[in-house]
Amino acid sequence: MDGKVFDGLKVAEFAWVIVGPAASRYLAEHGATVVKIESHKRLDTLRGTSPFANNKPTVDSSMAFGRHNPNKYSVSIDLQHPHGQKLAWKLIQWADIVTESFSPGTMEKWGLGYEDVRKLRPEIIYLSSSMQGRGGPHSGYAGYGMNAVNLCGFTEVSGWRDKRPAAPHGAYTDYISTRFGALALISALDYRRRTGKGQWIEQSQFETSLHFFAPPIMDYQINGRIMERDGNRYPEAAPHGVFPCKGNDNWIAIAVLNEEQWRNFCQAIDQPHLAERKEYATLPQRKKNEDELEKMAADWTRSLMLEEAEALLQRAGVPSHVVARPKDVYEDIQLKDRGYFVPMNHPVMGRQSYEPQSSFILSKTPRRINRPSPCLGEHNEFVFKNLLGMNDEEIAGHIADGSITTELPGQFKVSM
C-alpha cells in the first residue's frame, strides 16, 4: 500500500525541544502533516545544541534539532505579536491536533490555551506537556529533562557508592515521556473517531517518568528500603558489569544471570573448577564475593582482544557484548541491513543520515522519512499559501509588521 496510517492528519506543533516534537514525529513518520511553529525571536533550544554539521554552529546546522524534526514543515511566527497570534489561530483552525510544551499558562497568556481553542474547535485534540503538570505548588516550575531526572530520583541511583551521583546522559525523561505522549495522541484519535469528541491530554513529565522508577519506590513503600548506587552491579546477577579488554579503552559487558550461565562462564574462562567452589555455588554466595569475582573476570578479559572475548563468551552461552562507541553503532551491519539510517540531503547540513523515531515497522504502511529536518521558517510561503490559503499581499503584511519573523535579533547562542 502507498498510503500511510495518518495520511490527511494535520498537526500544529507549538511544542519545542524534545518531548513534544518527538511525540508528533511518530505521526509525521506515518503520513501526518506536521507544521512546526517557531520564531527567530525565541529559538528552539535544540537549534543551538551540538552536534553541528561540519562543526559550524548555525541556526540550521544542529543535528540535535534534526534528529527530532524530519518530515515536518517550519514556519516562523512571533506569538507575542497580536498579528502573530492571529496566524497561530489560522493554524489551529486548520489542524486536527495541537501540541505545546511551554510552561503552564504560556499558551493561555496568548489566548491559545485549550479552553480558548475548545470554544471554537470542540473536536480538537490538544496535548500539553510540561515539567510537573498543571495544578499543585510546583506547576509553574520550568525546566528540561536534565532537571527532571533529579526530581524523579534517577540521578541518586546512578553511579558508584563511593562517588557522587552520576545523572543519566542527556534529557532522559524527555525520551521516556514522548512515548506516552504519542500513545495518548493515538488513543485520542481513536476516541474521536468513535465519538466525534476531542480531548485535552495534560502530561506531567515528572509523573510520566516515575513509571520507570516504580520498583525502588514500591520497595521503599513496602519495606522502607532505599535503593543505593551500585555501579554496574545488578541484584539478580553476578558477575554483572563492564570489564576491560586489550587495547585503548575497550570494554565488554557481561551478565551472569543463573547457575547454568555461571557454569558456562567458568568453562569460557578456562576455570571449570570454579563452578564447584562453595563460595560461588549460588547467586547469594556470588553476590557476597562479588569483588573477587569482578577481579577474576577483569584479569581474564584484559588478556584478550574485545572481539575475541565476546566470541568466547557468546559461544559458551554467556550474555555478553562489546561496549559500542557511536562509530560502532553507526556502522553496525544489522542496522545497515535493516535500513535504519536514512540518508537525506539537507539544504544547509548537506548529506546527513536520519534515524526513524518509530522502533516498529508496520507491514502494510511502514514508517518513512521523506524530508530532512526543516530550516527555520523554511516553509513560510508553502504553509501560509498552500495550507492556509493566504495570498501574497497578506503574507507580505505579516512580514512587514514582524508577526512573521525573518531575522535573528542578536548573536546566535550555542551549547556544545
Present the secondary structure layout.
Blueprint: E1 10-13, H1 19-29, E2 33-38, H2 63-68, E3 72-76, H3 82-94, E4 97-100, H4 106-109, H5 114-120, E5 125-130, H6 145-152, H7 172-195, E6 199-204, H8 205-209, H9 214-223, E7 240-245, E8 250-255, H10 259-268, H11 283-288, H12 290-301, H13 306-316, E9 320-322, H14 326-330, H15 333-337, E10 342-346, E11 350-354, H16 380-387, H17 392-401
Parallel strand pairs: 1-2, 1-4, 2-3, 4-5, 5-6
Antiparallel strand pairs: 7-8, 8-9, 10-11
Question: Overview of this structure, please?
Answer:
By secondary structure, the protein is an alpha/beta fold. It folds into two domains: 10-212 and 338-401, Rossmann fold (3-Layer(aba) Sandwich); 240-323, 2-Layer Sandwich (formyl-coa transferase, domain 3). The protein contains 17 helices and eleven strands. The strands form three sheets. Strands 3-2-1-4-5-6 form a six-stranded parallel beta sheet, sandwiched between helices. It has a three-stranded antiparallel beta sheet with strand order 7-8-9, covered by helices on one side. A two-stranded antiparallel sheet has the order 10-11. Helix 10 (259-268) crosses helix 13. The protein is elongated.
Strands, total number: 11
Mean of residue pLDDT values: 94
Going by CATH, what is the homologous superfamily of the largest domain?
Crotonobetainyl-coa:carnitine coa-transferase, domain 1
**CATH architecture of the largest domain, please?**
3-Layer(aba) Sandwich
**Strand residue percentage:** 5-15%
- Annotated CATH topology of the largest domain: Rossmann fold
Q: Give the number of helices.
A: 17
Give me the Rg, rounded: 26 Å
Name the helix and strand elements from N-terminus to C-terminus, one letter apiece. EHEHEHEHHEHHEHHEEHHHHEHHEEHH
Low-confidence stretches: none
Query: Could you say which structural class the secondary elements and strand pairing correspond to?
Result: alpha/beta
* Domain tally: 2
Assign a percent range to the helix content.
25-40%
Our measurement of the CA-to-CA distance between the termini, rounded to an integer number of angstroms, reads: 43 Å
Basic shape: elongated
